[in-house]
Amino acid sequence: MIKLFTMLSTLALFLSGCAVDHYKEIEATYGTSKVASSPNRSAVIFMEPVFVGKRFDEVTCDNMVGAVWNPEDAKKIGYTANIAEGMAKILPLLAFEATLPYNIGTGRVASGQSLASLDRIKVDGRILVPLGSYISRHVEHATSNLLHPSSVCYDSACVERHRQSHPTDVVAIVRFTKFRVAEEKANRLTLIAEGTAIVTAPSGGKREVPLKYEVIERSVTSGGGFSSDIVQTMAKMTNELSLSIAEQVVASVK
Fold this sequence. Notes:
Blueprint: H1 2-14, E1 20-25, E2 43-47, E3 59-62, E4 66-69, E5 76-81, H2 83-98, H3 102-110, E6 125-129, H4 131-146, E7 151-153, H5 156-165, E8 170-185, E9 188-200, E10 206-219, H6 227-252
Parallel strand pairs: 2-7, 2-8
Antiparallel strand pairs: 1-5, 3-4, 3-6, 5-6, 8-9, 9-10
Helix pairs in contact: 1-2, 4-6
């Protein structure tokens, strides 16, 4: 139980602090699209604001508030661990385990029942994922590579300028109705983006195409247990979601 006592001592030191930030600048990784290029198909993609008058690519989502407009937070991904609050809940339980006989305590650790198993410790905190930034970058990349010539707009004035110069282009309004970031189980991240592409043909005909992608309770420690590993894994999941949404958007206008 020496390791457990060491953990207790170490964790107790954190109670004098309050929160620790672990963030990195966003970086979209595009990979290979499954959607074929359409060199003769042009369109204008309007990323409709989630909040009136605010750019879609400045929308973030966290596990505490949900979707919010925050241009500064839209530049980063990661989490803030509220050590004091979280450890206040965990330390009494760890203290109890420290009093158990050696053979019982060792058995609990070996079987994964002990709180000394880090995968079972869920530290309270904020998990920030700038879904608007990631999805926008992927849509811009997919559009520039798969639809020619095309534009991605973030306000109605941009859409009108494009329509005046390209009156025969398809218009797609991308409207999101659900963003979700959650950690319902320790170290398991859930990301959800859901919405609709409202596609208008040059003839005036309209159709609605559902957009959706989910990452459900995926381990954030699969790439390593250090904070930098966790944030990198979060970014990988967000890129996966954003790539799929971008492919669905492009496919909706083809």
